[in-house]
Write a structure and sequence with these properties.
Layout: E1 8-13, E2 16-20, E3 30-37, H1 61-72, H2 77-80, E4 84-88, E5 90-94, E6 99-104, E7 111-114, H3 116-128, H4 131-134, E8 141-148, H5 153-163, H6 171-178, H7 182-188, E9 197-198, E10 213-214, H8 215-223, H9 238-241, H10 243-247
Amino acid sequence: MKIKMKTTLIKMPIISFRRIENPLEREGKRKYIAVIQAKNLSRDFEDWRKINPRDPSTTSGVAKKITQSLEDMPQDFFFKNRGITLLVEKATFNNDAQNLSVELSDPKIHGILDGGHTYKIIIKTLDELENKEKSDLDNAFVQIEILEGFTDIEDVVGIVEARNTSTQVKDQSIEELRGNFDVIKTVLKKERYADRIAYKEIEFSEDGSKKDIDVKEILSYLICFDSESFNDKNHPIIAYSGKGAVLNHA
């Protein structure tokens, strides 16, 4: 029996909202475009970033360019930034109140799938500004693309892979999204180094430090004990010849 997950409802005031007609609407798959004042982005999305293939860094070159664009030319931010893409269970718009409501229930399917850097930088910038300075961002707007009705994890993985081609998503981030590392997490969860293992391409600890153990290192050790695939004539050289190869080993 499938367990019903608790639904999170997030509401935000927005500037505009449009449904984009598509050929899969009969299957319940819908697409919407919303425009929101950057300072009205909900902080509740912080808990819904699991499907994003990498933890956003606010110190990378890309992040610095986004921050500069937001702070120096907020009026142009909407046109220079690709925006944020959400996968949700349901999206509704109250035309009278100009409020967008999105429902999310499954962290493996719903949340921010693209635009994690944009989201993180906007929230960080707002948190660092004094109240009197926040008015400087009144002219900063961001686009939110909303995809509704996707329930299959492979559909979600396919969208994530396709949407993240500008900065190539490494295979391990996709494998993490598929849940293929869940067994390793369960086995190692009580080990003192468990919180230091990065299962995504880039992953940070709660204190903001970058996790220093790559899951591919764990996989390379495990491969050495795979007696079904290797023997005294066929050695597991992929364990040390290239970290990327261990991801392809079944």
